[in-house]
Amino acid sequence: MSAVKRARTEERSSSRSDALVGHTVDEAKALIPRTPEEKTTGQRLVVVLEKAALEVVQVKGKYELLNSDDHKNILAKSGKDISSYRPDITHQCLMMLLDSPLNKAGKLLIYVHTMNNVLIEVSPALRMPRTFKRFSGLIVELLNKNKIRAANSSEILMKVIANPVQKYLPAGGIKCGLSVDGRLLTCPQWLKSHDETKDSKGRCLIDTVPVTVVIGAVAHGEPCSVIKELAASPVVCVCRWN
């Protein structure tokens, strides 16, 4: 069975009711934001994974996800920084985000912006493959076909969308970037700093417009300039350790 078929089988057969925060499967599906209005209003968190190392390479007639473990020689010959090609970081981030109670409650939106300027929208309904091998097969198909559909329906689970990411982010919402070089704040401290931020109707902005957080999906280095451009607000640090 191919990596993509296995990933789809996992997505289809997995019972999502064990972490749906009090909702049935049908109720949880109804919570997933689908329209532009739903995606840019209400209490939600938008996460942008920036500088993700997702690039396809052809090896002996087959397409593979370029990474520092399997393609050292290819990276060295092309003069690329071997340590920068860590798609496993994006894999781990997506697993944690998609498995989170926040996502199960329909309160999370995820975008991935790669180092090659490819922008990907990830459906909250996606069941992320557990192994890196299966994840690699999924991403290779995505980058070749521009979309991944569910096995038993026409629902799109991942798709390549047009840049820039700013046009998909909530207008007027609170935005921030995360960086070890940012101002050190805990998450509660950062949220409290926005308690008094109101919308045009005098309502607390965090309650009415999704919060956007930009995170560098990198092993090292600092995509801070990109984060500042996307977030249009000061960069903060919630932990001094990478």
TrEMBL record:
Keywords (A to Z) from UniProt: Methyltransferase, Nucleus, Ribosome biogenesis, RNA-binding, rRNA processing, rRNA-binding, S-adenosyl-L-methionine, Transferase
GO MF annotations, alphabetized: rRNA (pseudouridine) methyltransferase activity; rRNA binding
GO cellular component, one term: small-subunit processome
Keyword Nucleus included in the entry's annotation: yes
One Pfam short name: EMG1
Signal peptide annotation: none
Record-stated family: Belongs to the class IV-like SAM-binding methyltransferase superfamily. RNA methyltransferase NEP1 family.
Protein name stated in the entry: 18S rRNA pseudouridine methyltransferase
Source organism of this protein record: Perkinsus olseni
